[in-house]
Design goal:
The protein is α+β, with helices and mostly antiparallel strands. The protein has 6 helices and 7 strands; from the N terminus they run αβββββαββαααα.
């Protein structure tokens, strides 16, 4: 459950606030100030990452950029164009007009700040550990992805699992899912969610008393 909230009884909560970009957020992003010729990203030398600024002038291979009211000089190859606000919180990085490092990082950051922890990047699915519980791994959420193509639903590890399951059914060949990342990124938890998804959609009938669940059997192999 989100943060400290714990589900005790009743139906599973609606997972869409943690999966979909709300109309209000889309409108807010579109209203963001933007100049297609001057809005740029520049390196943040003090803290790392990037800062957004406005291009002031260009002198050969160097450019002057106004960052927070202060004009700074950068090499031209250090500057990256900013995507229009309507692309903020894009579900797939491949949809971005500009694909520089700063643009990819910003889209990941702005989605994370809005508690959207899954983002596609072409064939890949990026997951950022929120270090809190969101109600996006429930049976209600699983049902949103069963039998769906990846582009028919919001970014999620369940969509990746469903794609592998469909691939196995359609081709009759073994499938694999590579889950990689640094320590603490959430590899183990996402692996558990994949196993849970398969166990849920593949299980049938009631198990005998004392018998291990299909999920437990898979984990033990």
């Amino acid at each position: 459950m989100p943060g400290h909230i714990k589900k005790l009884t009743g139906p599973d909560p609606d997972p869409s606030p943690w999966l979909a970009v709300s109309p209000e957020l889309k409108a807010k992003n579109k209203a963001k100030p933007y100049d297609p010729k001057k809005s740029v990203w520049v390196p943040n030398k003090a803290e790392g990452g990037y800062l957004e600024g406005m291009l002031e002038s260009k002198d050969g291979a160097k450019v002057s950029v106004n960052v927070g009211g202060e004009v700074k000089v950068f090499k031209e190859d250090q500057v990256c164009q900013v995507n229009p606000g309507k692309f903020d919180c894009a579900e797939d990085m491949a949809d971005l007009t500009f694909l520089g490092d700063a643009c990819v990082l910003w889209n990941s950051v702005v989605r994370y700040k809005n508690e959207l922890i899954y983002t596609y990047s072409g064939l890949f699915c990026i997951a950022i550990n929120p270090y809190k519980r969101f109600p996006i791994y429930t049976l209600r959420t699983m049902e949103l992805y069963v039998g769906k193509r990846r582009n028919e639903c919001w970014p999620h590890i369940f969509a990746i699992a469903e794609g592998a399951y469909q691939g196995m059914q359609n081709t009759g060949c073994n499938q694999s899912i590579l889950i990689t990342g640094e320590s603490g990124a959430g590899k183990t938890e996402n692996t558990k969610k994949v196993i849970s998804y398969f166990a849920t959609i593949c299980s049938s009938g009631k198990r005998k008393e004392g018998e291990a669940s299909l999920e437990d059997k898979i984990v033990q192999t």
